[in-house]
Each structure stands twice: as C-alpha cells, then as structure tokens.
C-alpha cells in the first residue's frame, strides 16, 4: 500500500469512528431517563394529577401508562430534551407499575398510591430513629424497642442527598426505602412518627420525601428570586454575594476577631461575667449556610413531585436573627407554594424547643407565621426541651402533634384538637389583666400547681413575675409590684418551664401582648 493509500485508509477509518461516535452519542441522548425520585418503590399522591418528568432526545415522543388506568398519556421532549406530564391517580392502593416508552422503555415497579408529605428543615428533622454518624444523633427514646416494632412497609422514605449548588439543579441522588425494622434506624424520627400516625388512623400508604441538613438557616432553603423580591430580605443575598468578592480579606479579619474572642472568653470565665459574643465566620461559596444554595441543590430538583403538604422543623439556626425570621419564614413558605403552583399547600411546622441558645423572639416569629398564613399549623414543644441539648430525643411527641394538624385539616377528623391555648385578647381590670384564648377545648388547665411563666409590666416596661389564675376560659394575671399593668408575657424566654395546657393535653403557645422592642430586632 502506498503512503497516499495508507493516509486515505486512515482518514476513512477516523471518519467512520467519528460517525460511530456521533451515532452512539445520539443513541445515548435518545434514551428516556427519569429523575432519581421516580423509581421503584415510590409513593404517588392518591386521587390527584401527579407530575412525572424526565429527559429524552429533543423531539422524542413518549407514552406513559400505569397499571391502574386504561390507556395512557403522551409527551414530547422539548428542545432541551426535557418533558413533563400529568398522570391521574386513583384512591390509595397498590402495588402498581408505570411504563415509560420512547426510543427505549423503563418500567417502574412496586408503586403505591397514598399520601405524600415533604419533610424538611435542619437537624431536628434529620434526627434519625437510630444512632447516626454525628454524636448528636443518639436515637429516639426507647430506640431498640421502637425500631424493632417499626414494621410498616407501606410507609416509605426518599432522602435527598445533601448538595450545595450555585444553580438550580435538575436532579438529586436518593432511593425509596420501606419502613421495616431493618431500615427504620435510617428514617427521620419526626417524619416516621408523623407517618405512622397517619397510616394507623387512615390506612393509607405514606410517602416521605426528606430533604434536610443540620445547622442550616431558612435563607439557605429559600430561592434567590424570592429573597431578592422582598425588600426586607434582599440584603441577605447582596451581603453574601458582596462578601464573596472580599472573602480573603474578611477571612483574615475573622481570624483576628476569633483570636481576640478566645482571649476575652478566657478572661470572662475567670471573672464569672457574661461571655462575649462569638464572631461569625464569613460565608464561603461552598457553605451550607449560604443563602439559596440548598434550595438550588435539594429543593428545586424535586419540587415538581406532587405532595399532600409539608412538615418543617427548623428555626434554631435563625435565633440570632430571630426578629428577621418573622419576615423570612413566611416568605419562604409563600415562595414554596408559588413554585409548586399551590397557594393552599398545607405547611405544618414545629416551634423550637427550650434551649439556652434560643429566645422568645424566634418562637414569636414562628407564631406570627402561623397566624398570618392560611393553611399552616404550629406544634408547641415547650414541654419537650433540654436546656443543654438542642436535639431532644422524644420525637414521638413532635411527630404525633404534627399529625393532629393533618387529621383536623386534611383528613376530616373534625373532633381532633390540633393546638394548645392560643392568646387572643386582653383587657385591663384595675390592677390585673384578663387574657382570653382560642383552643380552650376541654378547658384551661395548670399541671402541677399554680400557673407558671407569666410576667406582667406597667408603663415602665419592667416585667415582674406574676400570679396567674384560671377563670373559665380566661387567665387573670397580676402582681403586687405593678399597680397599673399594661402588658403580659408568657414563657417568653430561652428556657421556659410552663405548665399551662388545655383539656386536650396540649401546651399553650408562648406569647406577649406588647409590641415593645425586643432582642435581635435590629439584627439582620
């Protein structure tokens, strides 16, 4: 073979290789692909039009059918190779199969129809039934016994991988897992107890979609657009993004401030005086406390999945900016609803428990969210705290109280009482103040003696420990140190120990009747 012939042969071979490679690439792109959450063992929301989505070759035609329905639905992948359809589901049941056909076929097996709840927040939602890798994940009360009897294969959990992302992610990693004694240790404890209550009372399968990360603030779970659209919150984004431009400089300043803090703390401890505030480290690009990064990586990829509602346990990481949370938390809830195109999406959450790092203001901000937004509900946990452990192990109490809201509002159990006494109004009566309450079902009760945690103040804004007595559905508060009272507070501190309940056995919500300046009010 001549040199020229050899060269021509080589070029033909290379050309053929490129053609084959291109064809192979086209074939790869043409394959129907599904997100991680749409897979074997999943639970879909019953009696609904659920969203299913995925990828294929641009312009590729697909058919989607389910074993519970006649016929199916069709889809065409758009120019980006993305497709989305609505599939009508029937009443709870299964297992079923779903078949996706394009240039290839995918069959999803063991699909249940039931109730799907999205479970999110920080470490108290992440806290598992069994011991975890972190030392604070020490398992629930009576851990071995609780795990051994957690045999509910129709309760299933999908846990999204912890991901920080600068941009909106298209997919996540994770798999559906049945609740059995072999798997239960890995389940979110709050989510498990919540699901167990719903399953036992309704008989419906329950799907739990869990997306959480310990030690994270609410702004991390809120979209960038939602933060920027709010005049009170956009500074969170601009401060963070400006900080990235000067990260090295800010890091050096932080190190100097931290060294000084260590020295000042040592001196304060020797002198038995108040410890100085610890300086905050600058937030880097790959930090899980950065605004909107967890929304991008852990909410956006699965927010299209149709759910019944949301349960949420977070707030501890926003306590140093607790007053701001009264705007941030409702903004996050509204944005999640808007992004899911469901303004009535049920959203039930847990008020932070007593702990030395918390304060009355963060609980008040959570209370404001409940009172200001429809289709929300709040669980009070003032009787489930630990002054030094921010992760109380009694997650059964939390999950079962969250379920009360679902029973009342979503499942038609009208006789269920979901909340303890909620402050409604006040009236000055000479040297005392009469307080009126909602959720007084079964009457107002004081456990273990006289009512505790009530304080009262006059025009001087100085609060004194008060005497409080129950009169019907009211509480009358007074103090010999306050002749003309104008304001009352209840359990409004970091570690309250109240004993005020209604007849349904649920604790009263901490509150204040005044609108005077409070701590963190100027911290943004």
Automatic annotation (TrEMBL):
One GO biological process term: carbohydrate metabolic process
Ranges for domain Sialate O-acetylesterase: 293-403
Cross-referenced SUPFAM superfamilies: SGNH hydrolase
The entry's keywords: Hydrolase, Signal
Signal sequence range: 1-30
Keyword Iron: no
PANTHER family: SIALATE O-ACETYLESTERASE (PTHR22901:SF0)
Name under which the protein is recorded: Sialate O-acetylesterase
Organism (species): Mucilaginibacter yixingensis
